[in-house]
Amino acid sequence: MHLYKVLQRPLITEKNSALQAQGKYAFEVVKEANKEQIKQAVEKAFKVTVTGVNVMTVPGKRRRMRGREVMNPSWKKALVTLKPGDKIELFEGV
């Protein structure tokens, strides 16, 4: 898998904004990606040093749409910890 296809989008939420003070950033990643691929993708894309990667699969939710129940797909979330002093400028000021 190509490294630029591993990261799908950054997750910018209130909880994740609080984690930025600790040097942790959250991303939605491809389901097939492993921790090593996520680490390499973040280091290459943002020119930072990654010290740890935590990965979790978020289960899909049931939704009601026009009287029917549909299931949203599950997705994978990665919480990346950076070396102290490193920052990702994409998240700053949001």
Order of helices and strands: EHEHEEEE
Considering DSSP H and I runs of 4 or more, what fraction of the residues is helical? 10-25%
Class derived from helix and strand content = alpha+beta
The CATH class designation is: Alpha Beta
Largest sheet: 4 strands, antiparallel
Provide an overview of this structure.
The structure is a single chain. This protein has helices spanning 14-19, 35-46, and strands at 7-10, 24-29, 50-58, 62-65, 68-71, 75-82. By secondary structure, it is of the alpha+beta class. The chain has a single domain (3-62, 70-84), classed as RRM (RNA recognition motif) domain (Alpha-Beta Plaits, 2-Layer Sandwich), CATH 3.30.70.330. It has a four-stranded antiparallel sheet with strand order 1-2-6-3. It has a two-stranded antiparallel sheet with strand order 4-5. The longest helix is centred in the middle third of the chain and has 12 residues, at 35-46.
Summarize the structure in short.
This protein is of the alpha+beta class and 94 residues long.
Summarize this structure as a short list of keywords or feature phrases.
Alpha-Beta Plaits, globular, 2 helices, 4-stranded antiparallel sheet, 94 residues, two-stranded antiparallel sheet
List the helices and strands and how they pair.
Blueprint: E1 7-10, H1 14-19, E2 24-29, H2 35-46, E3 50-58, E4 62-65, E5 68-71, E6 75-82
Antiparallel strand pairs: 1-2, 2-6, 3-6, 4-5
